[in-house]
UniProtKB/TrEMBL annotation:
It is a multi-pass membrane protein. GO terms for cellular component: plasma membrane. It comes from Sinocyclocheilus grahami. The chain crosses the membrane at residues 12-29, 41-69, 119-138, 233-254, 274-296, 316-349, 369-388, 426-450, 462-492, 504-524, 544-563. Residues 183-200 have a biased composition (Basic and acidic residues). The gene is LOC107579393. Keywords: Ion transport, Membrane, Sodium, Sodium transport, Transmembrane, Transmembrane helix, Transport. The keyword Ribonucleoprotein does not apply. Residues 171-216 are annotated as: Disordered. This is Solute carrier family 13 member 4-like.
Length: 586
């Protein structure tokens, strides 16, 4: 028994050692470039899926195995680890650091909460809209980490003011079987205290009513509201990340690998991706909200037609939210600067190459990365204080850090702010994916895989795409999203070329569906963040996430078969893919 425990404890180390040794006969018995590349690809993929080593460390495997097996030179592999996409990400992270530092995300979230109202169903929708908007520009993980403390504070206030109890008395809600609420009493999350900071002198929310002995929630209705709002935030962060190229790392991986494999294809840019994905996000947002509402809060129709009996409770609720909004005014100048940069970056991205009119790239041959890096660099130079005297300058000084009080020219962000948010592991992971793709291309492995998939040529394009979506969405529940997409993109590209299907017909849906790992806490970091607050159990995530997964696959398939076809000309096999196919076969 002790031996089994020791083996289980050392299982990752055993896997790291045994996988390369067990696969070593492949390049030794068949000494060719295809088998050597396949060996490197399988070892890296197993490391990624099993997470036996950190994802960033596993991404470095091609850097030393490709030169050892003669697939690529060391200099060629090294050049794959830093691409144009890395600069794009760095510029976006600079803006994200400024947004988080100067509380612009809190102002947006709280404003949405005030617009939505205190009714639980509308409150969930308001938070989802806010999270979707933030996740378009920030990483899904950062957005969830920013919004969840605000949601936690609102949930505590919602319960304390008795709004949920009033609703429970006036509405009969058909929910699922009663959840097992036998959790030990625990202190409310301390994260929401960030919004009620003592230095702002904001009064703490009133004490909770007497709770049930076996639960931290006064009623089962309160627990359902907490579950619904918590899960809605992680799902909304995933949906928002689909909208822009920079919204999530998997979009960046797809864009760079696609542009590397098909350099003649000038079809994927910020504008075309936004036009295609925005309707997907809007439809998914509404369907997901309806699904969560029916699952945890009951029928949407009956809830919306009930009489509003919450005037006193809503007044108290809005007083607290308004107080927080008032005390956020102290950082108004940096917020305005950040907002201007945010709007400017978005406008420049849209107008670079809109498609229907000539963009500014007709004058300057620049990319999205040029815009983001330039604006991100300026954030390190622009002072965080007004350059002109103000009657309120003395009031605003009290809320700055001591270091900034001593330095009137302190910039909007510092290198420490940037370092804290910069996901270097993702950068290396993306680089490892580029290196693998380059090896598959040079060695001819991608063409060999495509030839093995020729029996699928009898399937229609929509069936191939559906199978790819279902397979990717299933694998990503247990493996990281970037690693899953990095493994599948070369395979799907080779499959599309072999079947003479427009590669975008399979690659775009697969890229979208790889983000739908929402059924387990290990599916993606936002799931883990929401799960850590203790409002939901794994069974809740599985039930709700399964529905969201089906909704996502359905909407993506609808999009690729309707407005995606004329946008990307999916009904024809493009010349840029034909040129790639001919070149690869030579």
């Amino acid at each position: 028994m002790d031996l089994i425990k020791k083996i289980w404890t050392a299982r990752k180390l055993i896997l790291v050692v045994m996988i390369p040794l067990s696969l070593l006969p492949l390049p030794l018995i068949h000494p060719c470039s295809e088998s050597s590349c396949a060996y490197v690809l399988i070892v890296t993929a197993v490391y990624w899926v099993s997470e036996a080593v950190p994802l960033g460390a596993a991404a470095l495997v091609p850097a030393f195995l490709y030169p050892l097996f003669g697939v690529l030179k060391s200099s060629e592999v090294a050049s794959e680890y830093f691409k144009d996409t890395t600069l794009l990400l760095m510029g976006v992270i600079c803006l994200a650091a400024s947004i988080e530092k100067w509380n612009l995300h809190k102002r947006i979230a709280l404003r949405m909460v005030m617009i939505a109202g205190a009714k639980p169903g509308m409150l969930v929708l308001g938070f989802m809209c806010c999270t979707v908007f933030l996740s378009m520009w920030l990483s899904n993980t950062s957005t969830t980490a920013m919004v969840m403390p605000i949601a936690e504070a609102v949930l505590q206030q919602l319960i304390c003011t008795g709004i949920a109890d009033s609703l429970e008395d006036s509405v009969t809600v058909d929910t699922q079987d009663e959840e097992s609420d036998k959790e030990e009493n625990k202190e409310p999350s301390k994260n929401h205290l960030e919004l009620l900071d003592r230095k702002h002198n904001i009064p703490a929310p009133p004490k909770k009513p007497k709770i049930r002995r076996d639960s931290q929630y006064p009623t089962n209705r309160d627990h359902m509201i907490c579950k619904c709002l918590s899960l809605s935030i992680t799902y909304a962060a995933t949906i928002g990340g689909l909208i822009t190229i920079t919204g999530t790392s998997t979009n960046l991986i797809f864009a760079e690998q696609f542009n590397n494999r098909y350099p003649e294809a000038k079809v994927i840019n910020f504008g075309t991706w936004f036009i295609f994905s925005l309707p997907i996000a809007l439809i998914m947002l509404m369907l997901t909200w309806i699904w969560l509402h029916c699952l945890f809060l009951g029928s949407v129709i009956s809830s919306q037609f009930q009489r509003d009996l919450l005037s006193q409770q809503e007044t108290l609720y809005f007083d607290v939210v308004t107080n927080i909004m008032i005390f956020l005014v102290v950082h108004s100048y940096p917020e305005v600067v950040t907002g201007i940069f945010f709007i400017l970056m978005t406008v420049l991205w849209f107008t670079r190459e809109p498609g229907f009119v000539p963009g500014w790239t007709s004058l300057f041959e620049k990319t999205d990365a040029t815009v983001s890096v330039l604006l991100g660099f300026l954030l390190f130079l622009i002072p965080a204080r007004k350059p002109w005297p103000s009657a309120f300058s003395s009031e605003s000084k009290g809320d700055d850090d001591d270091e900034e009080e001593e330095d009137p020219l302190a910039p909007m962000i510092t290198w420490k702010d940037f370092q804290r948010l910069m996901p270097w592991e993702i950068v290396i992971l993306v680089g490892g994916g580029y290196a693998l793709a380059a090896g598959c291309k040079v060695s001819g492995l991608s063409m060999w895989i495509g030839r093995q998939l020729e029996p699928m040529s009898g399937l229609p394009p929509w069936a191939v795409t559906l199978l790819a979506c279902l397979l990717v969405s299933a694998v990503t529940e247990f493996a990281s999203n970037p690693a899953t997409l990095t493994v599948f993109l070369p395979i799907l590209s080779a499959l599309s070329e072999t079947l003479h299907i427009n590669p975008l017909h399979t690659l775009i849906p697969a890229t979208m569906c790889v983000s739908f790992g929402v059924m387990l806490p290990v599916g993606n970091p936002p799931n883990a963040i929401v799960f850590s607050y203790g409002h939901v159990q794994i069974s809740d995530m599985v039930k709700a996430g399964f529905g969201v997964n089906l909704i996502g696959v359905f909407v993506v398939m609808l999009a690729i078969m309707t407005w995606g076809e004329p946008l990307f000309h999916l009904s024809e096999f493009p010349t840029w893919a034909l040129m790639r196919n001919i070149t690869g076969s030579l």
